[in-house]
Design goal:
The protein is α+β, with helices and mostly antiparallel strands. It is built from three helices and five strands, in the order H-H-H-E-E-E-E-E. A three-stranded mixed sheet has the order 1-5-4, with no helix packed on it. A hairpin with a 6-residue loop joins strand 4 and strand 5. The N and C termini lie far apart (about 65 Å). The relative contact order is 0.12.
């Protein structure tokens, strides 16, 4: 049994020595030999690449970022994007409140939260694709 292990180790060492070039440098190339480790930009494809390119331009095509806060008044309502004519909205009326007030927001004029009176307005949103 020990002789089999030694023969296997000797064969492995011979392969390593044969793989070395004339200057005793390994002939096998490193993964990073072509200029370093690839970045996320180099590896991203498809939807991930599309989102990365839009983020560089300051766009948010799939509403992944938090919406911009508004004062919530009738003149400056919180804008809620939607691809349909209505959307359900949750309002946390007070900063330290753990209850969420849910209500339907319909296309048209601004609407108020039934509990705190903050104004919301539904705005049309087109999908990026």
């Amino acid at each position: 049994m020990a002789s089999r292990l030694l023969r296997g180790a000797r064969a492995l060492a011979a392969q390593v020595l044969r793989a070395r070039g004339p200057n005793a440098v390994a002939a096998v190339r490193s993964v990073a030999s072509g200029g370093g480790v690839p970045t996320d930009d180099d590896q991203a494809t498809g939807l991930e690449r599309e989102v990365m390119m839009a983020a560089r331009k300051g766009l948010d095509p799939y509403n992944m970022l938090a919406p911009k806060a508004a004062s919530g008044t009738k003149e400056d309502p919180n804008l809620v994007p939607s691809i349909t004519s209505k959307r359900i909205v949750g309002c946390i009326c007070e900063e330290d409140n753990s209850a969420v007030i849910w209500f339907w927001l319909h296309k048209g004029e601004t609407q108020r939260c039934p509990s705190c009176g903050t104004h919301y307005k539904l705005v049309p949103h087109q999908l990026a694709h």
